[in-house]
Amino acid sequence: MQEIVDKKIVILGSTGSVGRQTVEVAKDFESRGVRTLALAGSKNVKIMEREARLLRPRFCVMTDEAAAQDLKTKLADTDIEVRAGKEALLEAASLPDADIVYNSIGQSAGLEPTLSALRAGKTLALANKESLVIAGEIVKETARRHNAQIIPVDSEHCAIYQCLRAGRHEEISRIILTASGGPFFGMKRDEMRGITPERALAHPTWNMGPKITVDSATLMNKGFEVIEAVHLFDVQVDQIEVAIHRESIIHSAVEYNDNAVIAQLSVPDMKLCAQYALTCPERLPGPVKRLELADIGKMTFYKPDFEAFPLLALAIDCIKRGGVLPAALNAADEVAVSQFLDGYISFTDIMDVVDETISKIRNIYEPDLTQLKEASDEAMLQAAALCKSLRHR
């Protein structure tokens, strides 16, 4: 007999990589009482139509107006309502009868829906790390004020979340945050100059969107995850250690004050994280394959090369200094990666643009949302100007 989960959920960013896998989990758990109330995406009408017909939500949101009109035409034979724009997105994030809101919207666009869900007192299954990178203190305070819960869906932070159930907060010695190392592990900085977008998008383990895949190649993504972990788990940055683990089987670990290390292992599959957010603290059978250790054979671990991948060190420095710098870091990186993917700057230019942009930002401590936005806008302008100068070399 199947256990009943009986949850009503909303999936924001359902047409993206993590969102699509969350949709699979939602479908798998329909027979156990999971009901999807709303789906939200941006422009991908083809995927949204397929998801809508699969899950039959109450309504779908497309933030792009033209995409919403197209989707409305395609779903005319159903009773599924189609809504358009940012306000509709924020309404979906705060639906009164939703138990869990999944936020897998990409990049800085995910911050407002995060805050909307938390202000409504929802359990937030958070895959949008930028919410915490940009405004970690504000996000945490909003959750506290409205008695809302954040469950991380990032594979590493989901792993840490589970490992932390083994002890008390004051017993934590360090968090070991694992990283695959990306496709250019072992290369020196000079060897990376000619890397093309096509090569950067070939991640050895995970199938992700283009922005996060490039961030994984530069290790910027791991830097963001350090910042995310500081906020999620209320630890000092010096308590976090990054370990390169090429096999991506150990998703992260926690060392306690008795030097015992508790780790979470599984095959690399984001559906496990989406499922855990749905069922935790309970565990139920789901669609993820069993891990066979003998088939893995061996696991390897290395220290990060901070000289070859300086953005990891820069991210650690930004969270140590605090203020608006993490938000500026995220903004500068968004611009630089976009310019690289469009073929205007080189792979190593990403590192230089982000580093130089941060050096130009005046820090403001304990910023409010307006100041964080202003710092992000300034960082984008600075980064865009630097990219333009590099295009005319």
Can you put this structure into words, describing what you see?
- With 393 residues, the chain is α/β, with parallel strands linked by helices.
- It folds into two domains: 8-153, NAD(P)-binding Rossmann-like Domain (Rossmann fold, 3-Layer(aba) Sandwich), CATH 3.40.50.720; 159-263 and 301-391, Rna Polymerase Sigma Factor, Chain: A (Orthogonal Bundle).
- Helices cover 46% and strands 15% of the residues.
- It has 16 helices and eleven strands.
- The chain has a seven-stranded parallel sheet, with helices on both faces. It has a four-stranded mixed sheet with strand order 9-8-10-11, covered by helices on one side.
- A hairpin with a 4-residue loop joins β10 and β11 (261-265).
- α5 (111-119) packs parallel to α6 (130-145), α9 (210-218) crosses α14 (325-341) and α10 (220-233) runs parallel beside α13.
CATH superfamily heading of the largest domain: RNA polymerase sigma factor, region 2, helix turn helix motif
Tally of individual helices? 16
Sheet with the most strands: spatial strand order: 4-3-2-1-5-6-7
Helical fraction equals: 40-55%
Biggest beta sheet summary: 7 strands, parallel
Overall body shape: globular
CATH class group of the largest domain: Mainly Alpha
Q: What is the mean pLDDT? A: 96
Binned strand content: 5-15%
What would you say the CATH architecture of the largest domain is? Answer: Orthogonal Bundle
CATH topology of the largest domain, by name, is Rna Polymerase Sigma Factor, Chain: A
User: By helix and strand content, what is the structural category?
Assistant: alpha/beta
Low-confidence stretches: none
